[in-house]
Design brief:
3-stranded antiparallel sheet; 55% strand
């Protein structure tokens, strides 16, 4: 069950389900089904490189309890995809390729 606060500060419980959970090195996918807007906590380290897609539309994950991944999903059935992109690796690759190109040009 998912616990969210409504505007009147009362607690409302909605039945939620996670199905078809799959995980590999840089990607987590699953289907969610809920009777109301839900907060899902994924037990993985939160880093700024995580990207969240709900039914193909990009959204923002957020940290929960300082280190886990949190995401809000609307009511209904949804396909959730989290992908991790290491920005430092991407920028390091560009820097290395640029340095190599300069080295080749000036030698």
């Amino acid at each position: 069950y998912t616990l969210l606060s409504n505007p009147e500060n009362a607690k409302t419980y909605f039945k939620s389900e996670i199905q078809n959970y799959s995980q590999n090195n840089n990607e987590i996918t699953f289907n969610s089904k809920s009777e109301g807007e839900s907060l899902i906590v994924v037990s993985e380290q939160f880093y700024p490189g995580w990207r969240l897609f709900i039914d193909g539309n990009e959204s923002k994950p957020f940290p929960v309890d300082f280190s886990l991944i949190g995401l809000k999903t609307p009511e209904g059935n949804h396909q959730i995809k989290l992908t991790y992109e290491m920005r430092s690796l991407k920028y390091g690759t560009y820097f290395s390729l640029g340095s190599l190109a300069l080295l080749i040009i000036f030698l």
